[in-house]
Every structure is written in C-alpha cells, then in structure tokens.
C-alpha cells in the first residue's frame, strides 16, 4: 500500500528526528513512499517511509545489509544508512491511524540504466557489480531474509495462480509454457544450487550508470535468501529487455559476474528458464493488478517489454543460450558443431525398418518442441509449418499437465468404469451433427479408418469401397487397400478388386477447372458412374470414403457442391458416407470445425486422428446409432488402449484449448492472411501456379509453366531445403510432388507468417 505524507510533513520529520534542514520532492514507488531530499549545501538523501505492512525485522535486515556492504565497498556503489539523532537506523513514527517507519539513506548519483543506451561494457559492469556484491555477502546473514515473496524465483510456479488474469490467449499460453518448463527443468535441480542472501531486484531502474558504466545499486526491498543464480537471472532479464541483441546483453552480464564471483555450469545451464521465470512473474503480476483495477504505473512499468522479451525468448533454442553462457564462463561446450549423425544413422539403419523415411537431405535431430517452434541439437530454432498432429502446439502446457496428472493417477483399459471416457465422448459429440452420436476410440487414424470400413461392411453387407485417386487413408492393411497413393506407388500391390478409384476433384489440373461452376457436380458424376457400373455387375457399395480436404492428393479443397452430390448418390445406392477428418478436423479449416461442414453435408461415419490428441496416439470413429447397432452383432469390439484414461484426459484438454483459446477463429483469420500473402507472391513469382486451402490447410503448387502446368520438380525440393536452412520446416505433397504443404500448429501467428513469406520471397527470387 502507499502512505500519504506531504513534502512539508517529511521536511518537518527530518528536522525533528535527524536535525536536517532540507527540501523534499516526492518520487514514485512500488510499495513505499519515497522522497528525494536536499539541503542548502547540495547534499542529497532519499527518505523512505514504510507502513505496518513492512515488518520491522525486515527493515532491520535492509539496514544491516547496507552497513555490511559499506564496510567492504570503497567506491560508494551502495547507499549508506543515515542514523537519527538517537543513533537509530530506523525511526518509528506513531500516528492515531498507523505506525510508520522512516529510513534515510545517502543519495547515489547516476542515471537509471533504463535511460541510457546499453553497451557490452555496460552490461559487463552490471554483472561485475553484482558478482562483487554477492562475494562480499558470503559472510552475511539475517533471519528476516528467510521469507516467502512472490518475486523469489524459487516460487515462480506460484505465478500460475494469476494466469487466468491474462486475457490474451496467446500471451497466456506463452507464460504457461515457460512456467511448465521451469517446473520440468529447474525444479528437480533447485535443491542442488548454491543459496545466498541476494538483492533479488537488480532491474533497469535500480542499477545506476555514470560514464557509460554501472556505478551503483539501490532498493533492497525485494532481498531474500534464495538460490544465488537468481540474482544473475534477474539482472540478465532486465539487461535483455531493451537490448538490441538480448542474448549478447545477457552473455555480457554473465561474463562480468563470473569474473567477479565464479559461477558453476549447473547454475548457468538453468539461466534460460530462470530468465523466463522472472518474466512470467512480472507479466502475471501486472495482469493481476490490471484485473484489480490498479492505476499505479509502477505495476505495469515493464509489462510491454516483458511480453516482447518472452516472445523473443521462445525463438531462442535453450541449448544455444546454454552454450553461450558456458562459453562466456569458459566451461565445456554442450554443442558439438562438428559432430555428424553417421553413428545414429547407422544404428537406425541397422535396427529400424529402412523404409521409414527421414526428412531433408541433411537430417534434423530435434530435441525439444515449444508451441510452434522446434529446437535441434545444434542450437538452431525452426518454425514448424507442417507438423499438424501437434495441433494446439508442441508441449502445450494445458495438454501436457492433463496428460501428466492422469498418468500419475491411473491408466488402464476400458473394461473399468471411468468418467473421462464418457466425458470426452460427450464433448466430442457436441461438436458434431446430432446424428453422429456413438464413439469408438482407437490409437491412430489408420486404425480408425480400418474400423470405419469394417463397420460399413457390417451395416451394408457389401464389400466394395469407392475412394479418390491419389488418396491416402493410413498404413493398416485395410487402409492401404483404400490408398491409391500407396498401392499405385513404388512397391505397391496395385488396386484391389473391391476398391474403386474416382476422379480426384482437382480444379487446378483436373478435367474440370475452377472456372467451371458445375465442376463439383461433374466430378461427382464420376462416383455415380462407378456405382452404376457396380450395379450392372450385381454388386452394391459398402462405403465412399474421402478426406474433406485432400492431403496427399495435393492440398485440394473440394469443389462446391461435390460432397452433397456424391453423398446423395452413395446413400441412394445403400452405401455409407465416410468423412476422413484425420488431417482436416478440429477447427483447422477455420470457417468450420470439421471439413465436411464446408460442403454442407453430414457423413454417416467420421474418422478422427492426428490433431485429436496433440501428438498423443489417439483416434476415433464417430457414427450413427443405426450403424453402431448393426456393428454390435455379438462379436465384442475391444481395443486395449483405445479410450484409456490418459488418452481421454488428453483429448479433453485439446478440445478445451481449441475452444478457450479461440483457435478455430485464429486459424481462419491467420490462414486467410497467410493465403493472401502467398497470392501476392504468386503475382510476383511465376513459379507459383496456384494457392489454395482453408484456414491452416494450405497448398501452393509450383509449376515451370502456368500454361502447360509442368511441375516444378526438383525446384520445389530446392525451395524446401533453402527454407529449412532459414529456419522454416515445410514439406511437399501431391501426385506430382510439386505442392508446398503448409499445415502448421494452430498457434502459428502472423509474425511467423510474415517471416515465412519474406524468406520464401527471397528463396523464390534466388531461383
């Protein structure tokens, strides 16, 4: 709280208790009243007035630590305590309303570092001052510093209690992610770190500068007994806030500190997460104050800078920062830039099936994921533009915690009752049309597609299935039989007799193009023709299965009216309509939660996978009551892991995140922005023949000639490799392997989009 004292009252108090004749000017403060006072001779002091909320023992600790430092500091870098006329360091003032405590300290000359331009020498001197101070405090102790305060990084996880005050979903997610990393990386090692009595707030207002070097440190109001490295982490945080090169600034602080007071590798290795912890405490505290209606500028003084730095910090590979700090201190490196992956590749070749492919000419060894970012073992950061199973972001904190907590309680098969199973089924069904009301849970999209076909055959008593040419529906035996992408490809077994290929409704390359308003009906007529041909043979149709936007078929949105006409023909023939939403669903298309909604149809069976568990092995089949009843023919359906409590908790978390963070709308807005940017590149670069998609399901087809549509291969491979070198992970798709596939995690943002488009522009120009 703040204390109301007039400048006249302060002048009178200092005259009465200190024998000083001064003038006073009130200063801003966080939780004390502060006055800059001067006498006629030009001497200056700072007068601090605290209320009863400040414990006298802690005020005594502030006095003792300054007196301790004064004995060891010959350069006047710390304030000195001025005692009153009774030789007391703290003056006690009793009023009818409250008890107050006055302290008077010498004034330190200098500018707050926040007002000057940072240099490497300045940052080094910042660290050096702290190192010398902490070395001088090795033999200091005070019981009042053994306390619990919000600003102690040892209690950083308490900031989770204020996360709900952050209204922006992206910011809330970012802070929660870093707090999860603090729990994962710091908490298990905290007990092994050196502890000390530290200042705990060497921020850019408390550090003073003269002649471009740090000259002093003020305000010991946040001091605490905690891990020594926290002092360094806090200094690094504030050095980084406004630095042109934040990492360089932090490295200089660490170097200066280490030269004055040696650190250990174990301490420096945690600095990345401790810096993040300080920022999280800051932004959650500001959010809490805003929610409470505070108008105190001090509560928000670093908020914007802290958010900016958090967004920057996640783009830095933690290993790169760890290496930089180790180098500054002369410790052994953690990155071996000269090492190759030959031994690992040899082991993989020896014991892993060789037809499991590896992306990129130079393989990546990814060691961590952070929302839309991936970190490799060389210290490089990549923006993930294609890893759609991690739907709501790599290591999303809400999903991770749900999975962890349930795994710590119970995981077993579904022959026992468990609330998560029915809770998840109910929430999943709530996103679907009313007729889709019965759920079956599996472990993968392949398994789910296999089950969907099995169910359709039970229901119709038929076997024949219609698929789209170039379609891919999974790796199980049945799913492979539905996948021309596989059975017509190298090593394929050819089209099975009971599988029938319909025209790929490609409005860029197919016989009916985007300028044909009847393209949807014309492509659908091909399906009707297959049904008619089967009927002539005395055969019926079990199912028609189709991705609601075509993935390996070329990132192709279906023509308007296509599924409506197809579904009508299939149902008229007694067949079942299966929507494969494995790559498409859960809000990715932006304009709808499910891809089939874009076509204004309702399937009889919907198959879900990939994004459903954010990378956790989970998939589902949801169908009508009639089909489920037909499938219940006496043979038990049992899946050891399908629907287990951990998977259900994970699925629930993903659904909740999509809803609470507004990710469907985010995909719509950002996806449209992305495609608009790609179309502008198309106007500039003739190699881009077509840009298509919905939301975060985007394809850009590259051609050598827009008239002949000759595929730009191997040019597209050059583009993908060049973008990888620039930190963007893309992939190719389509029957001719000439379509850039863009299906990022749903947390991909406009800044990521702008960066990708700028680099893609440069790469295409270089071709």
From TrEMBL:
Alphabetized Pfam families for the sequence: Aminotran_3 (PF00202), APH (PF01636)
Transferase is among the record's keywords: yes
Database matches in CDD domains: OAT_like (cd00610)
GO MF assignments: pyridoxal phosphate binding; transaminase activity
Keyword Cytoplasm carried by entry: no
Taxonomy, superkingdom: Bacteria
Gene3D superfamilies registered for this protein in UniProt: 3.90.1200.10, Aspartate Aminotransferase, domain 1, Type I PLP-dependent aspartate aminotransferase-like (Major domain)
Domain Aminoglycoside phosphotransferase: 28-261
Cofactor names: pyridoxal 5'-phosphate
Keyword set, alphabetical order: Aminotransferase, Pyridoxal phosphate, Transferase
Matches recorded under PANTHER family: ALANINE--GLYOXYLATE AMINOTRANSFERASE 2-LIKE, PTHR45688
Entry similarity comment: Belongs to the class-III pyridoxal-phosphate-dependent aminotransferase family.
Protein's name in the database: Aminotransferase class III-fold pyridoxal phosphate-dependent enzyme
The species this protein was found in: Chitinophaga fulva
């Amino acid at each position: 709280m703040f204390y109301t004292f007039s400048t006249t009252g302060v002048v009178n108090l200092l005259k009465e208790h200190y024998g000083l004749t001064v003038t006073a000017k009130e200063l801003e403060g966080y939780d004390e009243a502060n006055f800059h006072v001067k006498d006629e001779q030009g001497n200056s002091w700072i007068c601090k007035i605290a209320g009863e909320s400040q414990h006298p023992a802690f005020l005594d600790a502030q006095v003792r630590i300054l007196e301790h430092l004064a004995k060891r500091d010959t350069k006047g870098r710390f304030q000195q305590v001025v005692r009153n006329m009774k030789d007391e360091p703290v003056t006690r003032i009793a009023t009818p309303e409250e008890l107050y405590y006055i302290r008077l300290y010498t004034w330190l000359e200098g500018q707050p570092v926040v007002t000057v331009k940072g240099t490497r020498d300045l940052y080094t001197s910042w660290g050096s001052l702290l190192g010398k101070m902490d070395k001088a405090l090795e033999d200091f102790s005070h019981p009042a510093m053994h306390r619990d305060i919000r600003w102690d990084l040892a209690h950083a996880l308490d900031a989770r209690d204020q996360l709900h005050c952050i209204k922006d979903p992206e910011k809330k997610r970012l802070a929660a992610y870093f707090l999860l990393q603090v729990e994962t990386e710091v908490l298990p090692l905290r007990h092994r770190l050196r502890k000390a009595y530290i200042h705990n707030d060497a921020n850019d207002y408390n550090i003073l500068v003269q002649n471009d070097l740090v000259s002093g440190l003020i305000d010991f109001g946040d001091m605490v007994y905690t891990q020594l490295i926290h002092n360094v982490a806090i200094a690094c945080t504030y050095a980084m806030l406004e630095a042109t090169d934040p990492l360089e600034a932090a490295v200089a602080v660490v170097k200066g500190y280490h030269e004055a007071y040696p650190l250990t590798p174990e301490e420096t290795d945690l600095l990345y997460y401790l810096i993040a912890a300080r920022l999280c405490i800051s932004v959650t505290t500001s959010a809490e104050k805003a929610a409470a209606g505070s108008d105190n500028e001090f509560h928000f003084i670093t908020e914007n800078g802290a958010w900016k730095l958090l967004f920057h910090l996640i783009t830095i590979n933690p290993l790169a920062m760890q290496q930089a700090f180790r180098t500054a201190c002369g410790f052994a490196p953690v990155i071996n830039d000269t090492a190759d992956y030959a031994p690992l590749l040899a082991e993989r070749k020896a014991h892993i099936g060789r037809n499991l492919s590896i992306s990129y000419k130079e393989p990546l060894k990814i060691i961590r994921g952070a929302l839309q970012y991936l970190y490799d073992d060389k210290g490089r950061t990549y923006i993930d533009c294609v890893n759609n199973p991690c739907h709501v972001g790599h290591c999303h904190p809400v999903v991770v915690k749900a999975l962890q907590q349930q795994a710590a309680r119970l995981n077993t098969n579904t022959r026992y009752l468990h609330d998560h199973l029915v809770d998840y089924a109910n929430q999943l069904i709530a996103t679907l049309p009313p007729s889709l009301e019965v759920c079956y849970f599996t472990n993968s999209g392949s398994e789910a597609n296999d089950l969907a076909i099995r169910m359709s055959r039970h229901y119709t008593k038929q076997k024949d299935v219609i698929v789209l040419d170039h379609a891919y529906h999974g790796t199980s035996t049945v799913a492979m039989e539905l996948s021309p992408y596989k059975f017509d490809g190298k090593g394929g077994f050819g089209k099975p007799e009971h599988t029938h290929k319909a025209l790929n409704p490609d409005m860029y390359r197919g016989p009916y193009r985007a300028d044909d308003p009847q393209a949807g009906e014309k492509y659908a007529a091909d399906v009707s023709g297959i049904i008619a041909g089967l009927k002539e043979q005395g055969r019926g149709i079990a199912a028609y299965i189709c991705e609601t936007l075509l993935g390996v078929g070329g990132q192709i949105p279906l023509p308007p009216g296509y599924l409506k006409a197809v579904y009508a023909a299939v149902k008229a023939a007694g067949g079942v309509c299966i929507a494969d939403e494995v790559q498409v669903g859960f809000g990715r298309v932006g304009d709808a939660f499910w891809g089939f909604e874009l076509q204004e149809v309702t399937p009889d069976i919907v198959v879900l996978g990939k994004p459903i568990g954010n990378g956790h092995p989970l998939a589902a089949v949801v169908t009508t009551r009639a089909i489920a009843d037909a499938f219940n023919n006496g043979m038990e359906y049992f899946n050891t892991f399908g629907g287990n409590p951990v998977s259900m908790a994970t699925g629930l978390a993903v659904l909740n995140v999509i809803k609470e963070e507004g990710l469907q709308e985010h995909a719509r807005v950002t996806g449209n922005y992305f495609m608009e940017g790609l179309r502008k590149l198309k106007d500039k670069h003739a190699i881009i023949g077509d840009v298509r998609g919905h939301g975060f399901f985007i394809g850009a087809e590259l051609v050598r000639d827009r008239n002949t549509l000759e595929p730009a291969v191997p040019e597209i491979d050059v583009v993908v490799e060049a973008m990888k070198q620039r930190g963007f992970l893309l992939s190719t798709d389509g029957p001719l392997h000439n379509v850039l596939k863009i299906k990022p995690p749903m947390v991909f943002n406009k800044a990521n989009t702008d960066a990708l488009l700028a680099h893609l522009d440069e790469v295409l120009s270089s071709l």
